[in-house]
Design a protein that fits this description.
By secondary structure, the protein is mainly β. It is built from three helices and 58 strands. Strands 42, 43, 44, 45, 49, 50, 52, 53, 54, 55 and 57 form an eleven-stranded antiparallel sheet that branches. A five-stranded antiparallel sheet has the order 22-21-24-25-29, with no helix packed on it. Strand 17 (about 230-240) and strand 18 form a beta hairpin. The longest helix is centred in the middle third of the chain and has 4 residues, at about 375-380.
Length: about 775
Amino acid sequence: MYGINGEDRGFRWDCITANVEAIGIVAPASGPSLTADTNSPEYYVSSIHVLDPGYGYLTPPDVTITGGTPSTAAEAKATIRNSRVASVQVLKYGSGYASAPTVSVDDPTGTSTAGSGATFTVTATGSVTDILPTNFGTGYTSAPTVSVSGGSPTTPAVLRASINDDGEVDSVQIVNPGEGYTSAPTVAFSGGGGSGAAGTAVLRMSVDSIAVTAAGSGYTSGDILQITGDGGGAYAEFTLTSSGGIDAVNVLAGGAYRSTPTCTVRTRPQEQPRPAKLSAVSTPAIAGKYWAAIRYVDDTPPDRGGPIPSSISELVSIEVPDAAGHIDWSWSNTGMDSRVNKIELWRTTSDQALVLYRVAVLDKTETSFEDTTGDNDLIDPDREYDGSPVFGVLPIVLPNGQVNARRFHPPPRNKRVITMFQDRAWYGVDVPGKKYDGSSDANAAEPNALYFSEVDEPESVPETNQVVIQDNVKGQDKITALMPFGGGMVVFQTRHAYRMSYAAQPVIDASVQLITQRGCLNQRCWDVHEGVAYVADSMGMYILDGTQVQPISDAVETFWSDGGIDFSQSKWFFVRVDPATKAVRFFYTPSGGFPDRALCYHPITQAWWVESYAQTFAAGECLESGGRQRLVAGAASGDILAFDSGSQDIQADGGASSIACTLQTGNSALNADKDRSFRLMYSPTSTDCDLTVALHYNNSATARTAAVAVSTGSGFVTTGGGNASLNLNSARSPLGDATGYAVAHYSGRLDDRSVGGDRHLAIALSATAPASERVLLYGIAMGGVG
């Protein structure tokens, strides 16, 4: 829970413990002081160079790194190619090396004997590409039929012959070359009236696969498969077994051949096995230019969005020209907030000022630290400090230019209202004469400025996160309230209301539209119920559905126009809807102090009435009680009281004396209906309790009294020159207990032609409830009114 009033930073409460804290954490007043210790520089293994790749390695050798007296040893692994060490990858850079270590690898496991013994079976298939004539034949009067046989095709070839004028076969056309021939087929000619024609089929074959029939041994990855035959173009690679045998062959290109080729291994000239030679490159752990800062964090648990940090302190730089063993940090905790739990140290890697890395997390009492963390360790995501993970990355400014490391600034101190809208907290309603940081300035004013927090960080409000509601209407106005409503937020001013929405970044894509020429008195003078907002401003009350405005207080307009409301105390007024009865209450005071009355409106009957209370109230809210939502209010006495239960009429001093209560209806227009009656349903009391009914005609503040005494036996009794009264005591009559229903009759001079005619009637009820009783009315019905 967050609360602000524009007087200070506001408060935060976890709603569980009694711990109430200030919102946000103030950044350290100054940056740290840094000193480099160059007496005992330390190094780490940044890379390993291959000076001689050696020869004869069948498997990658182990890499051994020795010497240099490190605090944490480096680790590396080698890769081989063509039986040689191709490269060495550093797995762990190590730390604390006083000098460059020595790097060595195991001796090679291969031999200098050339490989031998491998044999292969080549499978190649093809199609007929040509027929070479061996005899043209004679005596053909028509083209003979050409047939092919043999060669084991998957699809046989189809051929067609043609003859010349001399009766010879002069050509053979390949209609379909066929597929899958493993050897050249036999060609035969028949028919056509001649004889003697003959020819040989020519194939175009491609290597499909090469099977290893004998693996052999002693081969290396530098050896080459040689595929030979009538043609060329085939290419294949092989894998080796641990003993240097050919394990499998993978054909990469099939080539083109007239017959199935053969496969052999061409071994390269052999070298004598020799070990590789390596050299470690040691780099200073701390060298170059660094930027550093500190910040504070609290103990908010992670499942509640914590820890909450402050912005970083000012950035401090240090130049280490050669190498250093460590950097000594020191700082002052002057002005530290009480909610601070830990101190975080942040530093860049060398020669860059874009990204900070967390060095350590210390107790809030610490003021110094010896930093031995080299660049390689600083960027290690598995790094720990004091047995706990400590790695963290904090860009100083995001690539789009947005502030980042300093976005954790506490909220503004010159705003009175905070509300959550979408994923951000919004701060508004200006305190004149105060600047953003809370300092006094008689000329400071931000009447239409809103500040917003970072996403899901209500306590992070950099000063650049500002949206200003532009006044494009006549006369200056100022923001008075903020109301999240539907997909937007209504920004109320004294006399206007705007709808604001945004997609991602309010500074860039916020949209503000004027929706009404009505405003709101303060942040508590609106309430939302069943999709509409009930709002009170200096002109009355109205309903806002998001785009349309419906005034509802015309029937009680005189409260606003005739001084019935003390607007000098409007900062204490509030509006609340009772979800149990749907009644809308506008709490106000007619003459100073906290509200002790409420103008009440029912949206179904559209009736208005006034409630007066024995207590004064400062705020109201709807809370769950007994499985349902109920309206409760905070009394000036400190009590929390429930409405529609009678408890709001308890005296502030806790006394047991009787309580006076009144209720007055709104004005109702008289009509020609002759049923001039007032009907009441109530709860009978166990002791005497008189309910008085006063009739106010034509909006008069003075009740019209009765001319004569009347008692019709319906419960109400009228005295001459007085008002009607009803004894609510259930045993008021010896004829039997009261039923809780009573009727009183009234009169009225309804004559449109007469200046003295009656037009409207309002009924005022008053009673003084004994200490052990309460006045409970269920319903009031009036006849003769429209």
